[in-house]
Write a structure and sequence with these properties.
two-stranded antiparallel sheet, binds zinc ion, 2 helices, globular, alpha+beta, about 60 residues, 4 strands
C-alpha cells in the first residue's frame, strides 16, 4: 500500500502522518509543538502566521 506524502505547512517537510485542516496539512510533530507552545512564546506566533498564510493562499 502506498501512502501519499503531504508537505507540512509549518516545517515544509513531506510527512506521512498528520492533521489535515481546512487549508493546511500539519504533521504530527508540528501539531505536538503547537500544542506544547504557549501563546506567550515567540514560536507560537510563527506557527499561527504560517497557518494564516496558507489559508489566504487557498482562498
Ligand atoms: Zn511539520
Amino acid at each position: 500500500m502506498r501512502e501519499s506524502m503531504k508537505v507540512c505547512k509549518v516545517c515544509d517537510q513531506p510527512k506521512h502522518e498528520g492533521l489535515q485542516l481546512l487549508y493546511a496539512f500539519i504533521c504530527t510533530d508540528c501539531e505536538k509543538e503547537i500544542i506544547n507552545t504557549s501563546p506567550e512564546e515567540e514560536r507560537y506566533d510563527y506557527y499561527v502566521e504560517r497557518l494564516k498564510a496558507c489559508s489566504y493562499q487557498k482562498q
